TrEMBL record:
This is Putative redox protein. Gene3D superfamilies: alpha/beta hydrolase (3.40.50.1820). Pfam families: Hydrolase_4. It comes from Actinoplanes lutulentus. Residues 26-159 form the Serine aminopeptidase S33 domain.
Amino acid sequence: MRFASSRGPELAGLIDPPAEPVRGWGVFAHGFALSKDSPGASRTCKQLASEGIGMLRFDALGLGDSDGDWGDGSFDVKVDDVVLAAEFLTGRGTPPDILVGHSLGGASVIAAAGRAPSVRAVATIGAPFEPKNVERHYEALVDRVLEDGHAEWLVGGKALILKRSLVEDFRRAELRHHVVELGLPLLVMHSPTDSTVDVANASRIFQAAQHPRSFVSLEGSDHLLTAPGQAQRAARVISAWADPYLPGQK
């Protein structure tokens, strides 16, 4: 399935239908340069679906099967597109009860939650407290991008165009006020040995959040949740934690 992004080009999404009994629905946002088919996204959503929580996962602008230019994206665009994904689910009669985000997707679902009226809870996995944390991935290119306006960035064998506007947007983006004003139950999950986004980010999110808030340490997991069982374990924790907030749970 496809829906229009906030920039116009269509985004490609996939729905993991929930097993019976249906407990609720959710939207999953993947990490910075990942996709809906990355292990953290696909395995987490499939596990949640197997436990009665239907999930929509989608490729961000210019990634995976989505149209558009990745370099035209930004943190604000990612947040806007999470909101549009929630609206897409609502339009098909299955409004999302929960937003789940991995890595930068975790920051984006926190920022998007207040604009998705049906959402009852938010869960993050390995999320950064400051969106500009992503700059460490392309640090060697920053000076060239700021001087020339753009540069080619090779990620996983794919060439992406890194633009000055994207770099500057991530430097400006703020998450703290979104955390403070969230007003929804928040589950913060993070591996203490995460070498990509330090676990200190989880501490800052948790400390800024209001109750009800929960923290779960994903012992032994890597940032991308690639090892067997890591994503499924995270999903089982989310499923159990979300019980009181899902309409199908009595």
